[in-house]
Amino acid sequence: MGCRDVHAATVLAFLSGTASVAGLLAAVLLPNWRQMRLYTFNKNERNVTVYTGLWIKCARVDGSRNCVIYDPQWYTAVDQLDLRVLQFALPLSMLTAVSALFLCLIGMCNTAFVSTVPNVKLAKCLVNSAGCHLVAGLLFLLACAICLTPSIWVIFYNNYLNRKYEPVFSFDISVFIAIASAGGLFFTSVLLFLWYCACKSLPSPFWQPLYSHPPSMHSYASQPYSARSRLSAMEIDIPVVTHAS
Asked: Is residue 191 part of a domain?
């Protein structure tokens, strides 16, 4: 199967990238980045757990699923530096990953519906599917770095809060979802880079390695033949037979 065909690697990369973006969206929306456990020694009262997200804060008493205190304006008054950074980093990572998915989709459609031989006049201007997959892989790698760095920082910042105040803080499930999504973005970029490296063995420019022309197609314009060259193929030595008298 040639590089122009839609490989299983590109399809798997697109599915992996889509799942990673969905995981990032869930991590952004869930109010489960940090828990603050408040204990009481009064037997007539119950312990309270404060769930802190990027946009909202919810306080629940033990045994209840309803929020005793619900703060939908938490995103405007975030007083924890790691969560404030994540408010900007995760949406930026999602935007970068969605752009990469769009490029990956363009590359897949190009391999499926574009003819094998490119238009001679547009051959030097085309951004073919291999170029799209290469840029998509770089964007997936960038999205992974933007997401992974502040997500891991939450773990260390949580330990800092426990040392500074009291050991009542713990990171929640959104941290694991974000880190797993970053791993999915990295896996997606590796798949696209492997696919690109497999196609780069073809004799072609760096940006356009997709079209695998036969040797005669590398020169798009053939040189005109001269009149002498056209006649040379017809010049056949015919022996002259003379009869002796």
From this structure: yes
As a whole number of Å, the CA-based R_g of the chain is: 31
pTM: 0.73
Question: Greatest CA span in the chain, whole angstroms?
Answer: 143
Determine the angle formed by the axes of helices 81-113 and 173-199, rounding to 10 degrees. Answer: 30
Distance separating alpha carbons of residues 233 and 229, to the nearest angstrom: 7
Per-residue model confidence (pLDDT) at position 75: 79
| Residue 125: per-residue pLDDT | 43
Q: Quick check: is 92 in a domain? A: yes
Tokens 């492997």 correspond to: 194
Range of the domain at 137: 6-32+79-112+124-199
The CATH number of residue 89's host domain is: 1.20.140
Helix H segments across the chain? 8-29, 81-113, 129-164, 173-199, 227-232
